Amino acid sequence: MSEPLSYPIGQQPGTGETLEVAPGVRWLRMPLPFELNHINLWLLEEDDGWTIVDTGLNLDDLKRHWEAVLDAHCREKPVKRIIVTHCHPDHLGLARWLGDKFKVDTWITQGEILNAYAWFHQLPNYDVDGMVDFFRRHGLDPARAEMLHGRGPTYRDRVDGLPTQYRRLLEADFVRIGGHDWRVIVGYGHSPEHAALYCAELKVLISGDMLLPRISTNVSVMSATPDGNPLKLFLDSVERLSELPDDTLVLPSHGRPFRGIHARTAQLAEHHRERLAALVAACDTPQTACELIPTLFQRELDAHQTMFAMGESIAHLNYLEHAQKVRKSHDDNGILRFVANR
After folding, report:
1. Is 22 helix (H, G, I), strand (E, B) or coil?
2. Residues 6+ away with beta carbon under 8 Å from 279
3. For the chain, where are the alpha helices, taking DSSP H only?
4. Is 218 within a domain?
């Protein structure tokens, strides 16, 4: 029987400070200007330097906080490498800035760095126009479509340049850090090729965004892959994480470090089963993904949240379509609707 979730770290680091949570593993907590108001970053100590795992958003305040951390820890032992779990700007945003400062490579999977380049350079269907047109086909109303379009391409603002070269991480790679082997566990669905890091000796998992203690990771369909099934990929990836020992200390990108990995993976599987059942019930008559947002999210959403909510609604509906629980049709205006198969 799995253990319930527990939170063994009784405190959290102040902004610009670090807290040791396992031998040679230090926790940084940096602010974000969103409802989800923080990100956890990690410093891994070695005899002759440090490894940074994830970097934070491109904000002047975060750079100042990083300067304080670097001054406290990296005068005698410099940064040796930067590992980025995935391409979202709160994780990759300062990798180029930190890499240039220490003249070190960024370690990242190929799927993540290529996706970052596509967003940064606004390639077709990775750009704002492609996203908004995709959401319009799924029923997004003109007012909210204009709101999203008016935000512009925010990715470039939130990422202080991209690494011009990188070290590629692959599934089941081992990265030797501080006398310990950290195994790369690639997960899918939240982002193209997300890399978590697991150290069996320390019983520590740096889970990135693949496993969070209190909220469900966003899983969205992208306009470049409109018929994709990222929710299936995500759930399969979470099931793989449930194979790790239950007393693993999970270090998530948001929320507090926790133990109880089996209980949490089961909670996430059940959460999505409930959401999928609710959507099937709501599709007695044809519905657009936009019309079904209230079935998934019972609160008012700003522009940032609307973008995630549309992607997540489509992801759940695509899952159901692949499972032949619903079928899709479009009207004369090209608007897509889903109805339950009875």
Report:
1. strand
2. 292, 295, 296, 316, 317, 320, 326
3. 60-73, 89-92, 95-102, 110-120, 128-137, 142-151, 154-158, 230-241, 261-282, 293-296, 303-322
4. yes
Cα(306)–Cα(135) distance, rounded to whole angstroms? Answer: 10
Q: Whole domain around residue 119: which residue ranges?
A: 18-261
Judged by phi (left if over 0) then psi (alpha if -120 to 50, else beta), residue 103 lies in: left
The answer to whether residue 177 sits within a structural domain is: yes
Mind giving me the DSSP string for 196-239? EEEETTTTEEEEETSS-SSSPPP----TTSTT--HHHHHHHHHH
- The rounded distance, in Å, linking the Cα atoms of 88 and 311 is 15
Q: Is the pLDDT of residue 1 over 60?
A: no
Contact (CB, 8 A) for 240 and 190: no
pLDDT in tens, 101-152: 999 999 999 999 999 999 999 999 999 999 999 999 999 999 999 999 998 8
Q: How far apart are CA 224 and CA 123, in angstroms?
A: 10
Classify residue 73 as left (phi > 0), alpha (psi -120 to 50) or beta: alpha
CATH of the domain at 66: 3.60.15.10
The pTM assigned to this predicted structure is 0.96
- Reading the block at residue 11, the tokens are 């405190």
Distance CA 200, CA 181 (A): 8
**Is residue 5 in a domain?**
no
Q: How far apart are CA 85 and CA 210, in angstroms?
A: 10
Which has the closest alpha carbon to 53: 74, 25, 83? 83
What are residue 82's DSSP bridge partners? 52, 106
CA distances from 162 to 88, 140, 188, 224 (A): 12, 32, 22, 21
Q: What tokens does 182 get?
A: 């950290």
